[in-house]
Amino acid sequence: MKNPNIVLFCAFLIVSLVGAPSTAFGENSGQLKDAGFELQTAADEGGWRLFEISLFSKNHARSGSQSMFNGGFSRTVPFQATFVGNASGAYQVFPAMAGSRWRLSGYGLTPATLEGTTAFGVLQVSFFDANGKDLGTVETAGGTTKAKTSSQINRRSSVGEWIFLDTGVATAPEGTAMIHAFTLFVDFSGSDRTQGVYFDDLSLCELNENSDTGRCDPE
To answer: Per residue of the chain (219 residues), what is the pLDDT tens digit?
Structure first.
């Protein structure tokens, strides 16, 4: 996804989502390249595409020596009842077909308590058609189309602890040509401070048609 406004749109849709399974889905990286952020593989070689305040970091790592940091600065706008913030993240893109089933999992950590209810980190999968239109995902007939996200790392999360994140099963809607797998930090808290979330040891799996198992071996 080349337009950060699409990410921001997805971010607003997921502010209220909470809850996810608490056990790991798998230890392999599945479709992802450099799922542990150790290689810093270039985006044009299939690696991570970074936007806004995102970087490979040696400050914290669940395994190896590096992780992905997504951060931001949210400030109060003087004389207005609004806040200015941003959505930062990293993502990879893969071909996908309508009806295919996917699951993104991994770990997130915040080194300090996040301030504000609209400051959080998530894993997210979004589906796009061949023209780059964001299709979100539809899990039930007639349901609202929206991005599929994990539980949040937010102000209620434990500090300094790697927390398992899992999107659960995301089903590609009609017209799908691509899936985007994200790490994402959103901050519209007006906290007037820089804060963010670290991510490590991710896995993106394409699941079998009638089960929650599938090909999760690194390519």
So the answer is: 444 444 433 443 333 332 333 333 334 568 999 999 999 999 999 999 999 999 999 999 999 999 999 999 888 877 666 778 889 999 999 999 999 999 999 999 999 999 988 899 999 999 999 999 999 877 654 455 677 888 899 999 999 999 999 999 999 999 999 999 999 999 988 888 899 999 999 999 999 876 665 555 433
Q: CA 113, CA 18: separation in Å to the nearest integer? A: 18
Write down the pTM of the prediction: 0.81
CATH superfamily to which 4-207 belongs: Galactose-binding domain-like (2.60.120.260)
Question: Residue 175 CB: number of other CB atoms within 10 A?
Answer: 13
Residue 5: φ, ψ to 5°: -65, -30
For the chain, which residues make up each domain, given as ranges?
4-207
Say how far apart CA 195 and CA 206 lie, in whole Å. Answer: 32
3-class DSSP assignment, residue 26: coil
